[in-house]
Design brief:
Shape of chain B: flat
Shape of chain A: globular
Oligomer: heterodimer
Largest sheet of chain B: 2 strands, antiparallel
Radius of gyration of chain A: 21 Å
Structural class of chain B: mainly alpha
Structural class of chain A: alpha/beta
Helix content of chain A: 25-40%
Number of helices of chain B: 2
Radius of gyration of chain B: 22 Å
CATH superfamily of one domain in chain A: Amidase signature (AS) domain
CATH topology of one domain in chain A: Amidase signature (AS) enzymes
CATH architecture of one domain in chain A: Alpha-Beta Complex
Strand content of chain A: 5-15%
Distance between the termini of chain B: 55 Å
Largest sheet of chain A: 11 strands, mixed
Strand order of the largest sheet of chain B: 1-2
CATH class of one domain in chain A: Alpha Beta
Chain lengths: 487, 103
């Protein structure tokens, strides 16, 4: 089956829910199909290593409970839709490890609001997926449980940190996956794997049950095989939550309301996202996508976001600073790993050095350094000020009549595993994505074609809480691109 | 600028991270390299930006730090490394003795 001209092995989330609602398929049949696809794609440790946990008995229990609901006439918008969930989002019926030894086998005593909302809508969680440890990474190579492989070429990375969910959706196992975004961890793997990835506005989706990395940046995001799959998923999990006081009570409009025309839409092309050294073929793909937008009636204007080149230094001060504070809770006292040692302090140090991997340790040290006496003003306070400048850039552009911005999602296609040995070189993978997190605005990546046989993504950025506009443009572009997105 | 080995050890101590000499040497090199990239920020004019309100941007808001209680489906005994009478046990601070095993 195809959707928007692209291959869709699952048939799409809306079609699954519709087939379930009219009784043409049963949840157990959908589970059968999903496990068959997972088996074929070798989603486990002996293959893609996308799944950290998947227990068929637990999944079938969910399907059986859903069948009882359906029998009483209680069908939801995601009835029977299989979803995969990044393993830093708390679930009650499976471990939540964050890809870390320090939480190996940990089972949360509560469930994330996003998961509760998916289950209420009828979705079936079929797997917890691999990630860079505590979501710190851009390749899913930093998982304590081995790297996830790219579905098209096992030598490549799928991106990260939500690489397990992205690989599973790209492999056609499920139409929807949950990931988390701190600096691009949904959009970057979506671009690398040739699927759709969405970071909502900060405050749009509850962070309750998302294990904290950098609290002023973190958001749960969605991965979809198509824009419609992603829209349906975000529609389900968005909205205020009393358990997360940073969520906003802003109406959630219909994200699936497709635009057939882009008449009157003004798209900004920020020149800082198209530097001379950008991969020429990626730039060509972006230009081609903008040509489609023009053909649909949009106006494209060159704009400037002058603080863009400061985003990576700002991000890699603020995110590690917040991480060093958030990860202080993993000390062997209340949950997770404890390494017995002689005395309390020695226990702390032994537990944390054994439990955390090299990238997490690096970021904790970096964060502690920039927050320490004598360096706070020079690094953290300065970064917060420059963050404000980056945010003002977006405010100014969106106030000047620009509806959305269009950029490449990443500077390169998927890279080879083990090829980035310099930590800062890895950080540069996020150069086009971190700005949206720093400014708190929504952003979406969709496939716009292939470069040297590998998928590349185009990114649409919108003002705060303008996800509907972002999805509308994305759906129109997806339809116009058709199968060109996979070529 | 250059991060010294002693600075790495000091920061590791603040972060309660055990770190050996070899690892500390690697971290000194890596942190120095990473922080060199951050120096660009020192040249940015931020005189018009108040650091204290830098976070108060659209999409974010100040609010009371409170919420409904978290309902635990599993008791602490199911996830705590060691627990006795509802308290988390830790090694003794002064005597360096391990706590007695729970009866």
């Amino acid at each position: 089956m195809t959707h928007a001209g692209r291959a869709q092995p699952t048939g799409g989330a809306a079609a699954i829910a519709e087939a379930i609602a009219r009784g043409a398929r049963s949840p157990q049949q959908i589970v059968d199909d999903t496990f068959a696809r997972a088996h074929e794609a070798r989603a486990g440790a002996d293959g893609l290593n996308a799944f950290l946990w998947s227990d068929e008995r637990v999944v079938r229990d969910q399907a059986a409970a859903l069948e009882k609901r359906l029998a009483s006439g209680d069908a939801g918008p995601l009835s029977g839709v299989p979803v995969v969930v990044k393993d830093n989002i708390a679930t009650l019926d499976s471990p939540t490890t964050c890809g870390s030894r320090i939480l190996e086998n940990y089972r949360s005593p509560f469930e994330a609001t996003a998961i509760s909302r998916l289950r209420d809508a009828g979705a079936v969680v079929v797997a917890k997926t691999n990630l860079d440890e505590f979501a710190m990474g851009s390749s899913t190579e930093y998982s304590a449980f081995g790297r996830t492989k790219h579905p098209l070429d096992a030598r490549l990375v799928p991106g990260g940190s939500s690489g397990g969910s992205a690989a599973a959706v790209a492999a056609g196992i499920t139409p929807i996956g949950l990931g988390s975004e701190t600096g691009g961890s949904v959009r970057q793997p979506a671009a690398f794997c040739g699927i759709v990835g969405v970071k909502p506005t900060y405050g749009r989706v509850s962070r309750y049950g998302l294990v904290a990395f950098a609290s002023s940046l973190d958001q749960i995001g969605v991965l979809g095989a198509t824009v419609d799959d992603a829209a349906l998923a975000l529609q389900t999990i968005a909205g205020p939550d009393p358990q997360d006081a940073t969520t906003r009570d802003v109406p959630v409009p219909d994200y699936r309301q497709a635009l057939t025309s882009l008449d009157g839409v003004v798209i900004g092309r920020p020149r800082e996202y198209y530097p001379e050294q950008l991969d020429r073929e990626i730039a060509e793909r972006c230009d081609r996508a903008l040509e489609h937008c023009r053909a649909l009636g949009a106006t494209v204007r060159d704009v400037s976001l002058p603080s863009t080149d400061l985003a990576i230094p700002v991000y890699y001060i603020i995110a590690p600073a917040e991480a060093s504070s958030n990860l202080a809770r993993f000390d062997g006292v209340r949950y997770g790993l404890r390494v017995a040692d002689d005395g309390l302090r020695a226990m702390y140090e032994a537990t944390r050095s054994r439990g955390f991997g090299p990238e997490v340790s690096r970021r904790i040290l970096l964060g502690t350094y920039v927050l320490s006496a004598g360096y706070y003003d020079a690094y953290y306070a300065k970064a917060m000020q420059v963050r404000s400048l980056i945010s003002r850039d977006f405010t100014a552009v969106f106030s000047s009549g620009i509806d959305v911005l269009f950029t490449p999602t990443t500077p390169t296609p998927a890279f080879a595993a083990g090829s980035k040995t310099d930590p800062y070189d890895m950080y540069l993978s996020d150069v086009f994505t971190v700005t949206a997190n720093l400014a708190g605005i929504p952003a979406l990546s969709l496939p716009i074609g292939r470069v040297r046989g590998l998928p590349v993504g185009g990114q649409i950025l919108a003002p705060h809480f303008a996800e509907q506009r972002m999805f509308g443009v994305a759906q129109a572009l997806e339809r116009a691109l058709g199968s060109e997105a996979d070529r | 600028m250059s991060i010294s080995l002693d600075e790495v050890r000091h920061v590791a101590s603040l972060a309660r991270l055990g770190i050996g000499d070899e690892r500390a040497r690697i971290m000194a090199t890596e942190l120095t390299s990473i922080l060199e990239h951050m120096q660009v920020l020192s040249k940015v004019d931020t005189s018009e930006v108040d650091a204290a309100t830098a976070l108060a941007q659209p999409g974010m808001r100040l609010r009371r730090d409170q919420g409904p209680p978290i309902q635990l489906v599993r008791p602490p005994a199911s996830f705590a490394p060691t627990l006795r009478d509802g308290f988390f046990l830790v090694p003794r601070l002064a005597t360096h003795e391990d706590p007695e095993p729970a009866p």
